[in-house]
Specification:
mainly alpha; Four Helix Bundle (Hemerythrin (Met), subunit A); binds fe (ii) ion; coiled coil; Hemerythrin-like domain-containing protein; Hemerythrin-like
Amino acid sequence: MAHDIANILQQDHERLDRMLEDAAQAVQDARWEEATKTLESFRRGIVEGHMAVEESLLFPAFEAWEGGEDHALTALLRKGHRDLQVFFSEMADAITAHDAEEFGDLLSTVQTILKQHDAKEESEVYPHLAEAVADGGELAAKRLLAGQEQGS
Ligand SMILES: [Fe+2]
Ligand SMILES: [Fe+2]
């Protein structure tokens, strides 16, 4: 197998963190147009790429592999995705309003949530994916890598 789904996911977390930092830097420099574009690339990358692959391919496979009815961990992670998306749209509003202070408050909240979320995935879900996903994560890896090319 030429890829390692756990590594690819972890690198995608790091790539998305950097994109968010780029957006924050643009806000700090009052480069509002660039901030809008960079935040939108980040949002698309994380929501339509990363989270969509997790929720449509990886979490269902993980849940089936875990067995049982109660999937508290993935339920929590899915809820985290919903909560984060609310903050992303509030960050976009702050940029539209040229409100760097509001953006900064939202940013630190988002970074705190993301750090915990990503750490939980990386320690409790990703290590099991190669075994849990029927194709070892090949399709998920392909979709993530394709999304990265589009977003870059
Ligand atoms: Fe996630
Ligand atoms: Fe993730």
